[in-house]
Predict the 3D structure of the following.
Amino acid sequence: MSTLVGVGVGPGDPDLVTVKAANLLAKADVVFVPVADSGDTGRAEQTVLFYAEAWRVERVVFALHDREHTARREQAWDAAAAHVARWFAAHPGGTAAFATIGDPCVYSTFTYLAGTVRDLVGELEVRLVPGITAMQDLAARSGTPLVEGRETLSLFPMTAGADRFREALRRGDAVVAYKFGRMLPETLAVLRETDRLDGAVYGAGLGLVDEDIRPAAELDPDETGPYLSTLIVPPRRDGRGHGLR
Ligand SMILES: C[S@@+](CC[C@H](N)C(=O)[O-])C[C@H]1O[C@@H](n2cnc3c(N)ncnc32)[C@H](O)[C@@H]1O
């Protein structure tokens, strides 16, 4: 049976690819990578090229920079699925990997693709190989435990609006924000308003050449950040074992 595997390749540092993912990237008949229509090398593609020869890597164009659920996005998902389905039609019984940054189950293009490819191909096994997420990398690199004891963790795409982000910050949860680059000033304003700026840590371009990791309190309150920016707001902690009390 033909097999499509969604594989997480981590946030950027090729050393953060799991052994399972590296083995798959080395053996798959083809590795699809999502790219924008600009023609630039994709973020997942940069990492994939450490493990797969360029001739096995095939680009699939996605409307990666559209923020809304636009008709252009729908068309891009359909076209991407048709591209992958054509490959299976030409290689029955083949194994294709589809690489995404971080983990394929966390805000990934793979989940949109797999269902449509299955509809087009019919007999298809779909599998997933997990990857290290940007929040895990930032937590480790900045020495910020995400959750301890009974603490809870909320993950927010800032594109969903600031209100639920504000609520979670007020509840005192550990909070991680994704997809806030252009909304960085607004995001920092909510941290100040809820008195959660101290202890918050910011990481942009993790594992890439322009990586920037620093306390959120040191950021310029008026400057926007790049798309690849992550923020961890740890719960207020008062000594060892605080999360168990
Ligand atoms: C579409 S989501 C993909 C998330 C990814 N699947 C994961 O598991 O981390 C894109 C968001 O992930 C975060 N992100 C992914 N890679 C990153 C990196 N190298 N540095 C900083 N943030 C990153 C950013 O918040 C970005 O806006």
The mean pLDDT is 92. Strands lie at 2-8, 30-35, 57-61, 95-100, 124-129, 153-157, 174-178, 201-204, 212-215, 229-233.
